[in-house]
Amino acid sequence: MFKEVGIDITSRKLYAYVLIGFKNDTFEKAEKRLMDTLKAGFIPFAMLYKNEEGYENKGWKVFQRKWARAIIVISSFPEFFPKKPKRGVRARKQYKPTMIQQFGKGGK
Q1: Three-class secondary structure assignment of 1-41
Q2: Which residues contact 34 (CB under 8 A, 6 or more apart)?
Q3: What's the Cα-to-Cα distance from 99 to each of 38, 93, 95, 106, rounded to whole Å?
Q4: Which bin fits 65, alpha (ψ -120 to 50), beta or left (φ > 0)?
Q5: pLDDT digits (tens, 9 = 90+) for 3-59
Q6: Phi/psi at 38 (5° precision)
Q7: Model confidence pLDDT, tens digit, residues 49-97
Q8: Count of Cβ atoms closer than 10 Å to residue 63 Cβ
């Protein structure tokens, strides 16, 4: 559906929240969910679970950071994000001045 209108993972416009660190969750299970999200064509954004008192497990904080910043995800998985040419940059012909333009006409 998205690809039909020109939106895919390379356009970097599709994001999905993925909850991590909840009761009985493991790093392996969370990473599988995050990778599945990536393979489905979305840039995953890891959301760390907090209980009713607002407690976050500190062990998950480092793991979450890797998956909560798009630039880290994009640079960690270049196979999903082929480089695109920069906008507005065109190949320019190499300018080579002639001898007259370079040194002048000479003369008196």
Answers
A1: CCHHHCCCHHHCCCEEEEEECCCCCCHHHHHHHHHHHHHCC
A2: 18, 20, 44, 46, 67
A3: 56, 18, 13, 11
A4: alpha
A5: 665 665 555 678 899 999 998 999 999 999 999 999 888 889 999 998 888 887 888
A6: -65, -45
A7: 988 888 878 889 989 999 998 888 888 888 887 776 666 655 555 555 5
A8: 18
